[in-house]
Amino acid sequence: WAFHCTHPTLSRAQRSSSVRSTCRRLHRPPCPRPFSSLRMIAPPHSLPVSLDYRLVSETKEWQALMRHATEHIQRVHLRELMRDERRVQALRTEYDGVYLDFSRQRVTEETMRLLYALAERARLRDKIDALRAGKHVNSSENRAVLHTALRAARSDSLVVDGHDVVREVWRVLDHVRDFSERVRRGEHRGVTGKPLKNVIAVGIGGSYLGPDFAHEALRTDPVANETARGRHLYFLSNVDPVDAKRCTQDISAEETLVVVVSKSFTTSETLLNARTMREWLWRELGTAPEVVRQHMVACSSNPDMVASFGIDPQNAFELWDWVGGRYSVCSAVGALPLSIQYGFEVFESFLEGARSMDANFYDTSRPLLENLPVVMGLLGVWNMSFLGYPARAVHPYAEALLKFPAHIQQVDMESNGKHVTLRGDVVDYAVGEIDFGEPGTNGQHSFFQLLHMGQVVPCDFIGFIESQNPLCLEGEPVSNADELMANYFAQPDALAYGKTAEECRAEGRPEELIPHLVTTGNRPSLSLLLPRLNPYTTGQLLALYEHRTAVQGFIWDINSFDQWGVELGKTLAKRVRQQLNQSRYFGEAVSDHFNASTRELLERYLRGQVG
Ligand code: F6P
């Protein structure tokens, strides 16, 4: 409960307080109004950590950072900051092989000190502890957020709302292990007796992006590549019928297992795609109930809907309301397709990597500088809310991470794309970056021009010491991987230092070209360097970025774990779907409930008129 005094002469900060006694103390002179004039604001569900401010921007720690940004950081170029070697050495940290250099951020040690102070004021450690303990940090849905329990060790225990969630997790993981091994050994076969060597995973959003990113990261890892020999994994996410065609056109239904992944089992795109796959199987293999029972399985928290679809309840793999879709890759959502493709041991190694990063994040007794997700989260807050950079890019210098930016885009933008605090107050500071990215060096030949000369977009560079595919051609000055990494090392400096007019002149460039050649620099980035991309480090990266998002949400005091914004579009699509049905099959005119623009678009679409 929060008590907001309605006294008109008080400032917003003074009017707000978490308890009545504090509220009275804040008033100078004490509020003459009786208790009844204090408006009691009930949050939808009690919040696990209470704060002594309404908006974090009202705190003195936030104000100090604002001043620091304008009075110091905005006046100094990264070129100068990088001259101070002591500073450069202070702005780096490492955990379990993951090395983070953030010296090319527009920060000093003083900035970091002020950011840590903000973290203390925002009670970041308490919030992390609440997350870990299974408190209902997703307050608008009154849910715990326990994706880290999905990668807890079997020997761990975490009792939440009366259930040992770790035991539940391992019950399902054992089920996944058993089923995936039976498929891989050819014990669970298709109806014609053929082994199931293809898997089509049907799902969208969090039920697709995480598994797809992990699959791409693993498929060229030498060990995983070997264990996947002869097997194929496809993802069907888009409801565009072309996606279904692309998935099925080169494979035989006899050898295919369809995994329907939907936490709710109500997502319209996924269910239509699941029905499309069922039709395909029926068409190819007949309509006997065994076809669906042998060729379709599901990951869902809705067993009734799974059963009514015709899927054998024995082949339904459970998840729970405390697993958010975008945080679900470590549940059966990722475990099932990835274990069938690569074997359960490979997936376990991915879980172990994530668990390692969880341990770093949850160790709130250590200095914040040693907590990688916290450092990256605080830098995110700094760049967005204090330096005003609305976007952020992630560039893995590893082709196998080609789907990582898309996954992080959902993790971060669905989590932190919010406009109110947990209590429902509208924020007056910028939250939620626009995330995008592309593997290097491809990105360099696409949008890097803008990063060097146009908008300032803080960048994450992710590199690896060893390649998944070491290759060195005779006569070449460096190996292929060194060629790639040369760019990984060069780009952050190009962004930070830029090129001055004097440097261009010293190269003998014609004077009229100089304005076109100057790059301003002063563009922040951070560099992550890991030993090699394998299942373990893929798990580490996943958890690092998941927790970074949580840290930012905790500082901004928003709910990073709900996604109400996506509902409106779904509701409107329902109305359009009804209209399309009525018009196509019953000849009804487009309703004037739609606005003139949508009406015209719909009419053209229904008439089939292109020009
Ligand atoms: O529309 C967004 C969303 O709700 C995501 O949060 C979720 O990952 C996705 O849809 C799919 O949901 P489900 O797993 O329930 O099909």
From TrEMBL:
SUPFAM superfamilies reported in the protein's UniProt record: SIS domain (SSF53697)
Species whose genome carries this gene: Cyanidium caldarium
The keyword Cytoplasm is assigned to this record: yes
Cited InterPro entries: G6P_Isomerase (IPR001672), G6P_Isomerase_C (IPR023096), Phosphoglucose_isomerase_CS (IPR018189), SIS_dom_sf (IPR046348), SIS_PGI_1 (IPR035476), SIS_PGI_2 (IPR035482)
Entry protein name: Glucose-6-phosphate isomerase
Pathway linked to the protein: Carbohydrate degradation; glycolysis; D-glyceraldehyde 3-phosphate and glycerone phosphate from D-glucose: step 2/4
GO cellular component assignments: cytosol
PANTHER family linked to this entry: GLUCOSE-6-PHOSPHATE ISOMERASE (PTHR11469)
Annotated Pfam families: PGI
